From TrEMBL:
Protein keywords: Signal
Domain of life: Bacteria
The keyword Signal belongs to this UniProt entry's keyword annotation: yes
InterPro entries from the UniProt entry: SusD-like_2 (IPR041662), TPR-like_helical_dom_sf (IPR011990)
Name by which UniProt lists this protein: Starch-binding associating with outer membrane
Length: 534
């Protein structure tokens, strides 16, 4: 019997090999990581990054199997045909994310094992690989907690480290609160260590070669680490037991840019860039991930289209194309309409789709981890929460400007082909951005209460994230309870509206039954994640 329990996962490609290249060969340096029988700290570091690449770069299976029928519906980032059972997450999609995470975590545990086996002087030289890998793993770990709650973490992926002992390697479930606490503690430690680390020339070169996220840029890893800390801290800022820590540590980070650099501009965005679409690092799967699902894979939802139409949002033509027979109008699918009405609207060629130049056929679309608009919207929330209205306004308006520029930049990367009847959009202008920021429903001054200003921030998060950052989108919609999205009630199913979490995959329930028993009572679609307190 094939054992699928995650604590026993051990990639066939545990060890990344054949990575020996010049800096100029950077984009050709990452073949399938299942080639040799021996690893090193440097190669294993790239193995950690590589294991997760299809869940950073937009790939077919992630978008088609997982996001198409779950998060992109819950966020109303896309339109779809209503059907019974539509709010129950597909088991295959959840399992995909689950096993990909634990494959990556197993790679990370092997990295820890290999590193621990090295003498002290070699560990000192290679410390940067451990710090960077931890930041990357913790980013994905937060996403897992945000959709599932308690998961195996602290003792998961340890089969190799435990010498193949299956019983010893059985992974307990850590609480969501406990994982968040650990991540915050360790990221703070890592931030301090990154400030004190010095790379000699040889290992600087090695780090540049093996690192396809930040290409060996130490400052970029500092920004990644501290920006991730901000994201975690802001996520728990309404939880009573985390409030004081969230506000004090965010104040410390935002008050000292030298010690705690963060992502401030789009030029500093943390992302996996595509340099050569003929390597493994490409976004070729984005097209089928959105378009092969038929019209409900990449069609526009009514709420988002209506908001952008009403406010003359300069991102509208960057993100969407009008329906073929819509006479240039942008029309979205109403999720509260009947299946017949939805289908008729689409068949008439009226429904807008996501822009194929900017998104699905853009094979150079980057793998987005953290970006400047996101961080400035987090800053806006923090400043509003702590009574600094002027700084909140500045961060909010900066985020909007950067979001439009972000999508301008994605369009500039495109190599889209095969698109007929829809011209490539032009980049949004600074004047259109200024006009949008000053419009009545967007202007900061139009909101007179803190609650209304928070709604402005939440709306801009939703628009900026859309289907590009679905996990962040769903987390903030649940946490802020805004924007308020209407759904057709599915009275034929126990789950009548979108869930507030996913549930643990069946294979884990079966094969890790003893440990699963500790979380069984809360493993359902209706129990909120601990930070969802409003």
């Amino acid at each position: 019997m094939k054992m699928k329990k995650i604590s026993f996962l051990l990639f066939a490609g545990l060890l990344l090999g054949n990575i020996s290249c010049k800096e100029a060969e950077f984009t050709e340096a990452y073949p399938n990581p299942a080639k040799i029988a021996e690893t090193t700290v440097e190669k294993q570091f790239t193995g950690v990054l590589y294991a997760n690449k299809d869940y950073v770069l937009p790939a077919y299976r992630h978008y088609f199997v997982t996001l198409r029928t779950s998060l992109n519906h819950y966020n109303q980032a896309t339109g779809w045909i209503n059907s019974s059972g539509q709010y129950v997450p597909g088991s295959s999609g959840v399992e995909d994310v689950w096993y990909n995470y634990y494959n990556m975590l197993t790679q990370y545990r092997e990295l820890q094992k290999v590193y621990a086996s090295r003498p002290a002087d070699q560990q000192a030289d290679r410390k940067i690989f451990m710090l960077a890998a931890a930041v990357y793993v913790y980013d994905y770990t937060q996403k897992m907690v945000d959709v599932l709650g308690a998961i195996p973490f602290s003792t998961a992926g340890m089969l190799s480290s435990n010498g193949g002992d299956y019983l010893t390697s059985s992974a307990k479930f850590d609480t969501a609160e406990g994982i968040y606490t650990f991540l915050l503690d360790d990221l703070k430690r890592i931030s301090t260590e990154l400030n004190g680390i010095t790379l000699n020339a040889g290992y600087q070169k090695s780090f540049q070669t093996q690192d396809f996220v930040n290409k060996g840029d130490l400052t970029a890893w500092k920004r990644y680490c501290n920006s991730l800390r901000l994201r975690l801290l802001n996520r728990v800022s309404d939880v009573e037991s985390f409030k004081a820590r969230a506000n004090s540590e965010m104040a410390e980070i935002l008050g000292n840019a030298t010690t705690y650099p963060i992502v401030e501009t789009n030029a500093q965005n943390i992302q996996v860039n595509v340099y050569d679409i003929n390597t493994d690092l490409n976004s070729k799967g984005f097209q089928d991930g959105l378009e092969s699902a038929g019209w409900f894979g990449n069609t526009a939802g009514k709420a988002m289209i209506d908001n952008m139409n009403a406010n003359n949002d300069p991102r509208l033509p960057l993100l969407f194309e009008p329906g073929a027979n819509a006479s240039g109008k942008y029309i979205g699918i109403d999720p509260t309409a009947t299946e017949g009405a939805q289908t008729t609207l689409f068949n008439a060629g009226q429904v807008a789709i996501y822009n194929r130049y900017t998104l699905s056929r853009n094979q150079f679309f980057p793998g987005i981890l953290i970006n400047a608009p996101q961080i400035n919207l987090i800053k806006a929330e923090y400043y509003l929460r702590t009574g600094n209205d002027a700084s909140a306004k500045t961060a909010y308006e900066t985020a909007i400007t950067q979001s439009v520029q972000f999508y301008n930049g994605l369009l500039a990367l495109t190599n889209a082909t095969g698109i007929t009847g829809s011209p490539m959009p032009t980049a949004a202008t600074p004047a259109s951005i200024s006009t949008y920021i000053a419009s009545p429903a967007v202007s900061w001054s139009s909101a007179t209460t803190s609650a209304d200003k928070l709604k402005l921030i939440a709306t801009q998060k939703w628009l900026h994230y859309n289907l590009v950052q679905p996990y962040e989108n769903w987390a903030d919609i649940r946490r802020l309870d805004f924007p308020v999205l209407s759904f057709q009630v599915d009275n034929a199913n126990n789950q009548t509206v979108p869930p507030v979490r996913w549930t643990i995959p069946g294979n884990e329930v079966t094969y890790n039954a003893a440990n699963y028993a500790a979380v069984k009572a809360t493993d359902n679609l209706k129990t909120r994640i601990f930070w969802d307190v409003k």
